[in-house]
């Protein structure tokens, strides 16, 4: 029988690579996203239109999936970037980042726990960031949200270890996705900087002298979700080309 994986934000970037790799590895994947993937990868996964900030909607969709399937894996991946220091972050900006990045994870985890507890099995992955470990300039709300996800991985790991439910945070460095391109486009628009130059600078900031690719993050997530990682819980798994080792 196929293992079942629920992912949020699986229609683009890192999430889309995860959906493709899990489908390839014989998982039945449910992708909860605002919109379906433009590439058609959703043909091979089950798409459920969902806004993760709508806690009731997340709960209803996941409860419905759990009624028909045993959910083995949850990947809370949906997230947005927001670039500003604390003074330039309005209360609305802070709420928006927190509602998607943190409350979205809270909603999805809360919704899968009853069925994972009943099955006494489950793997939960939270897409955090290298910014759960180090600060970056002009990243007040995003940094805070990713640190919160690292905390959620640890508390969930402790509270549900007795049910054989594992929770880990994945901490990617700079990964070349639509979110990355949008972030540097915004920066270039505000500062007038040249995009190619900024991209090159970003590459040179990484000890491996390149950005990560979403497929590389997907491989780590597949491993952490599998029984090969059955003694790994409460951890922050860095995949950043050496950035946080500096
Ligand atoms: P992405 O390409 O923008 O993909 C994010 C996906 O989440 C999109 O499909 C987006 O849908 C969806 N989404 C956004 N808001 C949502 C909501 N309210 N409800 C449901 N789905 C929603 O971003 P990515 O770079 O792959 O990032 C994925 C995760 O990795 C994020 O949590 C991000 O913070 C984290 N991360 C990324 C990097 C990086 O360098 N790229 C590094 C570290 C961590 P729409 O496109 O329709 O908005």
Q: Give the strand order of the largest sheet, numbering strands 1, 2, ... along the chain.
A: 3-2-1-4-5-6-7
Q: What is the helix fraction of residues, given as a range?
A: 40-55%
Which series of helices and strands comes N to C?
Answer: EHEEHEHEHEHHHE
What is the radius of gyration computed over CA atoms, rounded to a whole number of angstroms?
17 Å
* Backbone structural class: alpha/beta
Shape: globular
Distinct bound molecules: NADP nicotinamide-adenine-dinucleotide phosphate
Oligomeric assembly: single chain
Arithmetic mean of pLDDT: 96
Q: Please give the number of β-strands.
A: 7
Biggest sheet statistics = 7 strands, parallel
Poorly predicted runs are none
Question: Can you tag this structure with a few keywords?
Answer:
binds NADP nicotinamide-adenine-dinucleotide phosphate; Rossmann fold; 7-stranded parallel sheet; single chain; globular; alpha/beta; 246 residues; 7 helices
Structural account:
- The chain is α/β, with parallel strands linked by helices and 246 residues long.
- Helix content is 46%, strand content 16%.
- The chain has one domain: Rossmann fold.
- Strands 3-2-1-4-5-6-7 form a seven-stranded parallel beta sheet, with helices on both faces.
- α1 crosses α7, α2 runs parallel beside α3 and α3 runs parallel beside α4.
- It is globular.
- The N and C termini lie far apart (44 Å).
């Amino acid at each position: 029988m196929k293992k079942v994986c629920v992912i949020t934000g699986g229609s683009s970037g890192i999430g889309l690579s995860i959906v493709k790799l899990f489908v390839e590895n014989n998982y039945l994947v449910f992708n909860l996203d605002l919109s379906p993937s433009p590439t058609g990868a959703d043909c091979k996964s089950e798409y459920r239109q969902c806004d993760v900030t709508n806690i009731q909607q997340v709960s209803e969709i996941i409860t419905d999936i759990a009624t028909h399937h045993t959910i083995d894996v949850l990947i809370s991946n949906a997230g947005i970037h927001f670039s500003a220091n604390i003074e330039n972050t309005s209360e609305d900006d802070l709420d928006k980042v927190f509602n998607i990045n943190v409350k979205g994870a809270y909603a999805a985890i809360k919704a899968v726990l009853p069925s994972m507890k009943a099955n006494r099995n489950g793997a939960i992955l939270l897409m955090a960031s290298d910014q759960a470990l180090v600060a970056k300039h002009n990243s007040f709300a995003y940094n805070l949200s990713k640190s919160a996800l690292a905390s959620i991985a640890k508390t969930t790991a402790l509270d549900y270890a007795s049910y054989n439910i594992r929770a880990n945070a994945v901490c990617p460095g700079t990964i070349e996705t639509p979110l990355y391109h949008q972030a540097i486009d915004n920066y270039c628009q505000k500062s007038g900087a040249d995009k190619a130059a900024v991209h090159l600078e970003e590459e040179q900031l990484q000890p491996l002298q390149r950005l990560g690719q979403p497929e590389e993050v997907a491989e780590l997530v597949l491993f952490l979700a599998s029984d090969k990682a059955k003694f790994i819980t409460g951890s922050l798994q860095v995949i950043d080309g050496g950035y946080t080792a500096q």
